[in-house]
Amino acid sequence: MTSDETTQNEQLRGTGGDLPTVLLDQIELHVREHLRPRLEGLTDEEYFFDPSGSGRAWTIHPRTPEGEQPPTPFQGGSGAMAIDFEIPEPEPAPLTTIAWRLGHIIVGLLAMRSHDHLGGPPADYMSWDYAATATEALAQFDTEYERWITGVRSWDAEDLQVAVGEAEGPWAEHSRATLVAHLNRELIHHLAEIALLRDLWAHRG
């Protein structure tokens, strides 16, 4: 090997590139340093703010009384509050409130995955007790994010290559690393949308 080849190989070697560290650092930096601080001071008015101005945005709301027509065909939740959704999702996708987006993050991205892959408590859209206030929603987010990220921290590089299994349906053969990367992307995406909704609220006419 020539000295030039040795120098080139040395230049190709980086630090901090092991898979668990890369996946954890990516989401922890965004959530802890940027996105979670952007949620501080969230009010109930912002939590339920309809960005469409039409009153038709999907949201979390008091459960529709029996015999009355709910806003959407499916009303998830086991408590006093219900979340709107349809299967399949309509096109174009509806605008949503911060309440709806937090509900989706807390249940669909975090709590259900913690149950399926980490032995967390049972969770799904229909049985969840959705938050009636911004403070309660943020507390739910903090609990479920910590549960998920603690589980991810327990996986080493070999663990991350294990297939996710039947819980992920057609993606059953994909690795845990693929799932973690997907949830990182989804968390960053949806939390950034919430930050934008806060900006729209702050600059509303």
Sheet/helix structural class: mainly alpha
The gyration radius over C-alpha positions equals 20 Å
**How is the biggest beta sheet arranged?**
3 strands, antiparallel
Strand order of the largest sheet: 1-3-2
Calculate the terminal CA-CA distance, rounded to whole Å. 68 Å
Helix content: 40-55%
Q: What ranges have pLDDT less than 50 throughout 5 or more consecutive residues?
A: none
* Strand coverage percent: 5-15%
DSSP strand count: 3
Number of helices: 6
Q: List the domain count as a whole number.
A: 1
- Spatial shape: globular
Organism: Brachybacterium avium
InterPro entries: DinB-like (IPR024775), DinB/YfiT-like (IPR034660)
Protein name: Serine/arginine repetitive matrix protein 1
The gist of it:
By secondary structure, this protein is mainly alpha-helical. It is 48% helix and 5% strand.
Structural topology:
Layout: H1 3-12, H2 19-35, H3 44-47, E1 60-62, E2 74-76, E3 81-85, H4 98-118, H5 134-153, H6 176-202
Antiparallel strand pairs: 1-3, 2-3
Helix pairs in contact: 2-6, 4-5, 4-6
Protein name: Serine/arginine repetitive matrix protein 1
Domain DinB-like: 31-194
Organism: Brachybacterium avium
Plain-language structure description:
The chain is mainly α and 205 residues long. It has one domain. The chain has helices spanning 3-12, 19-35, 44-47, 98-118, 134-153, 176-202, and strands at 60-62, 74-76, 81-85. Strands 1-3-2 form a three-stranded antiparallel beta sheet. A hairpin with a 4-residue loop joins β2 and β3. The model has no long low-confidence stretch (mean pLDDT 92). Residues 31-194 form the DinB-like domain. This is Serine/arginine repetitive matrix protein 1.
